[in-house]
Structure prediction request, 362 residues.
Amino acid sequence: MYKVMIINVGSHFGGAEKHIYDFLRHSNQGQYEFHLVIRKNNRLYQKLKNNKSLKFCFLEEDKVNFKSIRSIYTYIKRNKINLIHAHTTASNLIGSLLAIATKTPIVTTIHGIVENDYNNYFKRNLYLSIEKNLLFINKSYICVSNFVKSILESKGYKSSRLKVIYNGVETTQTSHKELIDLKEELNISGKRIVGTIGRLESVKNIELLINIMEHVQKIECNITCLIIGEGSQKEFLIEKARKMGILENILFLGYQENPYKYMELMDVYVHTSRMETFGLTVVEAAKLKIPVVCNSVGALPEIATSFNGNIITIPNEDINLFTNHIKKLLEKNSITDVPNVFEWDKCIDETYKIYSSVLKEG
Prediction:
């Protein structure tokens, strides 16, 4: 049995961590033995720690340094790891260094674009420089969308090393009674509901959603907006909504372990992110037959083509267009059928084919 080390050095539970979590849950553990490099304080570990088929290599809680890299190097050698699979830019950097040092082949899944992942000027340019110098180390890059693939090609990545594999997306449905109880708990029974899920950070552009809500509540006063997520902009956004006089129409619900039950309350899912390389929550909403109105950015127009018009993309952050489409969808939700797309079986099968190809190449 081949041993695959998955490296994730992140400290929060975001899209890459959700992907790893679902990938490992759905994988055929008899084909590969997975070893996960992770921090104990990451929610991903808390969700996977009882999975007896997984083995863990722990990072220090607050930083990755030479000592951490050396301990992973020792782990790779001691456990005779056959393949490294890195996720995210920082993980790719560490994985690539370890691949060179241990002569272990590496595959990287590109979930984001460096230019959008780092606001700090020096950190962004440092990672861009490192990324350029690591181009030829990876045996294969998995791109989560054709948009990502085109960006990497423009940076000089060889097309032959790039493979588009869409994320598998799984949703869970909540019982009707539980949804009724949740509405009563939130005191929104009888309300029309819009909302979003995401980090309260600049890239997710929740400020635009609040501006949209100012317009929507003039048309539909019996409306509530649910915002699920935490982040550094939370107090700023609350204060903005208060100054605009619409705070009573918005519920900031923080991080939720199970966000789907809140998503299922929504009549319209509104996604205002400035950039998306895939758009996980957009796909989740569409799969739950919730109409989506979103910014026309990154991979979202590409993803929208798979859902027969159930995802509406808005150019140029046009508040009036957002408002008009939300109004129409509140009046009539015409979604009756959802195509069978973004399935985990296909994602895992295509990922395993890359594993097999890279291992044969050596």
Q: What stands out?
A: The chain has two domains: 2-168+343-361, 176-331.
